[in-house]
Design a protein that fits this description.
heterotrimer, A mainly alpha (223), B mainly alpha (213), C alpha/beta (316), A: 0% strand, elongated, C: alpha/beta, 2 domains, 14 helices, globular
């Protein structure tokens, strides 16, 4: 165990490990790119759905159940399935990552919207606000903490799962994990895993910081 | 991409075996996860100083790619079911621990005080008052953890286990969609059945919540 | 504190997990006392044999062929398909997770002894016997052979005037090779191509073992050179050019059973020897085709072949 950690230290700090087309620098950027794009696409799909069902209160049962169904989708199976249907490209990986991220965002957005006090909404309407004003000026700000929780959860899962790109020949930090598996090079596997975890935690802290910075002047949610 | 129905018919016995093996791996992981989370959650609930540490640790474990966990376990437990179950257990912790702590937190202090005032010993209070009242929140965690574990089992196909996940690597290698589609469908089916059973179990375990719902 | 927690946690789980293993050990010790010289007499396959196979079609077929002939000899055989690469399988064999695996002479030798230079089958067999770790042995090699091939498309061969591996060195830094990840560090792979032929690639792409990724990449032109198996029927079907190997980098790759001493009794030896003498390279190639192209089960294909060749009883 101790030996493995020493080797890991050497692996992570070796200058030759960081440079070049298969160096840590490039792999880290690739991983970041896969994760960011997948999360943004997932958010673009899931946020409107979550906001809409939260605002109207309609279709919630269906959406929430579909989401928990989505959580059961096996990522490996989805990647292979889309690969067989569409050929070798990043598409299978992105489809699987988006499918992974959507449920977390939908459920948390909906939960955030559902938690907004009815009286607050009624009061806003009473003041003559239009529906979109109620949605964007009243409900959304109040639901934001939970929406952000959903986004952060989705991002963490996507970063951890983007390793799968390496299974279908692409890059990212998963390269170290899959190559290390094939070569039984545990140092490489551990190095890849540590980098993924560090990236996930760093991105999570970044989002948490952004959240605090953006919304520190706002009153806390009604709950 | 067509489905070869005769393949499915010819392999019904194999598919059943893989499904059962898949389910066994996921359920064992949730069971071990609960055995680990329950005492840890009690500690996190009682000792404020440790709460952040324990929850943070389970969160960090969650960020490690599952395939890496399986590979790193190879020197310890080899190409066995044990490796799969330990790896999956790690991922159930984040949900189980968080929900159990939240469940314990949700028990009104007055209820606990009343039980203590009646002379009930602390361990009995925990077992007969706190845990039962926390059960709905804990069960919500168990449901999420179970569905997650069922979807994750297939990753263990990279170390030669993985239940239905073997259909994915097989279909991939041979450019054969039928096993892959079947594997995805069966995984979803397992998740659905397991979730329904857990809902039923919760119904039986917490009769006092029925009227409220 | 956090470490303590994690360790106790893991320790607890492992304690539960290792109970059956300990029990098995106990049985072994008592039976050893009873028989006295069971160590000298080799192993026993009485309790059945677990066959591990690598993550490609042919190895799985071979595993099921082993199982078919062992079952016919009255040995209970279990196949564990697709466990991974040699780098994963051999430690698992040593560790007792599996007992037997279909191997390839040259590749196995280079895994055990990267500096090995012998290429003739008999010499390799001797070198293997020396290089193998304690507790493992190889049985006589079979007729069938599946070598590593480095192949290019016809167009690439023409454009770069490629006929042998030596020609690749004329385009150092320009060509991309695709192979399974483990080939990057293998002698029969990127390491040997550099040492023996002085070939340096622009890039090594980690793909798979003569599977959909590496063949797809070669077809599409994403890689210039692909590491394939000679028993892959796509080489012929696609008209790919296998580069000649004048310096014998790629050793003979006859199929050879690698087995743990504890299971290598005369019943197993005899059954596998009969199989080795019967199965030809052409037949193995055809079995690969049936699984990869006709989508037949490796298990069925293996059993049918064994039955047709009188090596397994016809199933009722």
């Amino acid at each position: 165990m101790y030996e493995l950690l020493v080797d890991l230290g050497g692996w992570l700090t070796g200058p030759e490990q960081w440079s070049g087309s298969d160096g840590i620098g490039v792999r880290l950027l690739e991983h970041l790119q896969y994760s960011a794009l997948a999360t943004v696409v997932a958010a673009a799909i899931a946020l409107p759905i979550g906001l809409l069902i939260g605002h109207t209160g309609r279709g919630a049962f269906l959406a929430i159940n579909l989401s928990s169904f989505g959580r059961a989708l096996p990522t490996v199976g989805l990647v292979v399935l889309v690969f067989l249907a569409s050929g070798l490209s990043m598409t299978p990986v992105y489809v699987a990552l988006v499918a992974l991220a959507v449920p977390a965002i939908v459920t948390n957005t909906y939960a955030g919207m559902a938690a907004v006090d009815r009286d607050v909404k009624d009061a806003a309407r009473g003041q003559g606000m239009r529906w979109h004003q109620v949605l964007f000026q009243v409900e959304l700000p109040l639901a934001l903490p939970l929406i952000m929780t959903g986004l952060r959860l989705a991002l963490i899962q996507v970063v951890a799962t983007a390793t799968i790109a390496a299974y279908v020949s692409f890059g990212g930090l998963g390269r170290y994990v899959f190559d290390g598996l094939a070569q039984r090079d545990l140092v490489q596997v551990l190095g890849g895993a540590v980098l993924v975890a560090v990236l996930a935690v760093a991105l999570d802290l970044l989002l948490a910081g952004a959240q605090r910075l953006l919304f520190r002047h706002r009153a806390p949610a009604t709950a | 991409m067509t489905i070869d129905w005769t393949w499915i018919a010819d392999h019904s016995a194999d598919l059943t075996a893989l499904s059962l093996s898949h389910l066994q791996a996921a359920l064992s992981a949730v069971l071990f996860g609960l055995l680990i989370s329950l005492p840890l959650a009690v500690v996190a609930h009682r000792v404020r100083a440790l709460r952040g540490l324990l929850l943070g640790l389970s969160n960090v474990l969650f960020t490690i790619p599952s395939i890496a966990v399986f590979v790193l376990l190879l020197p310890v437990s080899g190409l066995t079911r044990t490796t799969t179950v330990i790896g999956l257990t790690v991922y159930t912790l984040v949900v189980l621990l968080r929900n159990t702590v939240e469940g314990l937190d949700s028990v009104p202090v007055k209820t606990k005080e009343a039980a203590t005032a009646m002379g009930t010993r602390p361990l009995r209070v925990l077992l007969t008052v706190e845990l039962p009242l926390a059960l709905p929140v804990i069960m919500a965690g168990v449901r999420i953890a179970t569905v997650m574990a069922i979807s994750l089992v297939s990753v263990a196909t990279y170390i030669g286990d993985g239940g239905l996940g073997q259909l994915f690597t097989d279909g991939f290698q041979r450019n054969y969609p039928t096993p892959v589609i079947t594997g995805v469908a069966l995984t979803l089916l397992l998740a659905l059945i397991a979730d329904a059973l857990l809902v039923a179990l919760q119904h039986v375990l917490t009769p006092w919540t029925r009227k409220r719902a | 504190m956090t470490h303590m927690n994690r360790r106790t946690l893991l320790g607890g789980l492992l304690a539960t997990a290792s109970v059956p293993a300990l029990a098995a050990c106990g049985g072994g010790i008592t039976s050893l006392e009873g028989e006295g010289n069971s160590l000298a007499g080799g192993g026993s396959s009485k309790d059945g044999v677990t066959i591990g196979t690598a993550n490609f079609t042919e190895n799985q077929i071979l595993g099921y062929l082993y199982a078919a002939v062992l079952e016919a000899a009255g040995v209970k055989a279990t196949v564990r398909p697709g466990l991974g690469t040699r780098e994963i399988l051999i430690p698992a064999l040593k560790g007792g997770d599996i007992d037997l695996l279909p191997e390839y002479q040259g590749a196995l030798l280079h895994y055990l002894d990267p500096k090995a230079t012998v290429t003739e089958e008999g010499e390799m067999q001797n070198a293997l016997a020396v290089a193998l770790p304690k507790g493992l042995q190889i049985l006589p090699y079979g007729m069938a052979e599946d070598s590593d091939a480095f192949a290019v498309t016809r167009e690439t061969a023409k454009r770069y005037k490629l006929r042998s591996l030596a020609d690749l060195a004329k385009h150092n830094g320009k060509l991309v090779i695709g192979a399974a990840p483990e080939v990057k560090k293998r002698t029969v792979g990127a390491v040997g191509l550099k040492d023996v032929y002085g070939v340096e690639f622009e890039e090594f792409k980690s793909l798979d073992s003569s599977g959909p990724l590496v063949k797809g990449a070669l077809r599409k032109g994403d890689v210039d050179v692909a590491n394939l198996f000679t028993t892959d029927t796509d080489i012929k079907a696609e008209g790919w050019v296998v580069l000649a190997d004048p310096k014998n980098l790629v050793p003979g790759q006859h199929v050879v059973p690698l087995i743990a001493d504890r299971k290598a009794d005369s019943t197993v030896r005899r059954a596998l020897a009969k199989l080795g003498a019967a199965l030809t390279t052409e037949q193995l190639t055809e079995l690969n085709r049936q699984v990869d192209k006709d989508k037949k089960d490796p298990e069925d294909v293996a059993r049918t072949w064994a039955e047709q060749h009188g090596l397994a009883k016809r199933s009722s």
